Amino acid sequence: MPLIDVKSLETTIDTWLERVEIVNPAPKRRTDDFRSSAGMASPPRSLSPSKRQRVSCTDNDAAATPRPTKIPCTSIHDDVSDIVSLSISQISGQSGQSAKRSGQSGRSSPVKKEAAMRQASELPLRRKPLDELLEAEPQFPDLVQFIKRLADLKDKEGILPRVLEQHIRSRATLSDPIRDWMFSPRPEEEPPEYQHHNLYVYERVRRICKASQQCNDAAHPIHEVEWNDKVHAALLELALDTAAISNPTRLLVYHNITNVRLAKEFQDRDLLLKENRVDYGIFLAPDSDSELGQRIAMHQRRQRDSANALESHSQPQPQLHALHAYEPDRPLAISIETKRNRGNDGQAPSQLANWARAHFRAISETLRACRDSDHVGESSGLVHPLIELDGTAWHISFAIREGRHVTVYSSVRLGSTETVTDCYALLRCLEQVAWWCANPHWNWWTKILQRCG
Q1: Residue 421 in contact with residue 178, Cβ under 8 Å?
Q2: Integer Cα distance of 363 and 319 in angstroms
Q3: 131 within a domain of the structure (yes/no)
Q4: Is the pTM of the predicted complex or chain greater than 0.70?
Q5: Structural domain of 296
Q6: Is residue 252 part of a domain?
Q7: How wide is the angle at C-alpha 42 spanned by C-alphas 39 and 43, nearest 5°?
Q8: In this structure, how many other beta carbons lie within 10 angstroms of the beta carbon of residue 209?
Q9: Cα separation, 431 vs 243, whole angstroms
């Protein structure tokens, strides 16, 4: 058996290691230091003649056996920086999600708002069914008759113009059948402009209905703002334009008041109920020469003179509603809150009820300035209708100041924007809403400001 030259073998191994380091200059593990520190001797490595030479990770070895993908060879510094960057991004994402969840959890739920309003020390909320309001017809005769007319329109009787019967029947569909009792009685005299106006209204209703179907498409959900622009605002504008034709001396206007905040003096002291907004408001718009317009101007002039005499500019000025620095000479008649159809999240009823409480605070402040007259300055019995929109469906409730409470009576379905006949029924209901604003509500403000002198 031939003897092995150990020195020659060590020289060969050192030469091979140097060649390996030149080919693959990756950092070498300090195993020798580890073993020496542990008191272990490192055994000599033996060179295997049949072993394939290690290649750099950047070389493309076609004969290599397919293996699972491994992490590419990089320096330790690159690995550490990548891990740190990944950890920071994960932490940032988790903290962002946590903050988002905290914001969502911090947002007050309808249940908490309802409980806070019921337990409020000032103007606590009560909810009652509408039947109890109908039983109080002697106290609210105009309101009860108004509600009954709204309820009758749900059957769609007489909602379509008879002069367009042939035109409307030619466009009937299976999903929206046309019945003879849906048409109004034919008037004895029909001026030419009457038919032109009805045709104009019909085409606008069809456009609103088409826009509503597009907005309500579950496959292509849209934002609430688009609902408001294309459907809700268009229908409100059409209803008020039609009402102005029948009663041109008592005009109404609607405004998008989403970005208008409540005046501080009318906000609730409870932080849970302090901030509150609604989407639309319908206002009385009396001409400056009308009786109501002159009464409003006299009332506000007298309040400014009183404030100047007392030098109390810091005192809140009585307004005709609770909005901050917005339409100060136009009373707010109707409040409207819109929501997309999201499974009845319950936000709209709470928003509207809390809004009505702020509205009644403002009216009480206005009437308190009239206590030097015969009027006692109480807003008890004042009615403020609240319209709630849930996707295509419209409902109306009635908030009434009853002593120290605010009672909300719910609700009457006004209609929807799903079909042409549904839109017409809803339009007729909104015309009745406009009638209530321009008559009973208008008369209430005129009577109150007369008593204020």
Answers
A1: yes
A2: 7
A3: yes
A4: yes
A5: 114-155+248-451
A6: yes
A7: 135
A8: 23
A9: 6
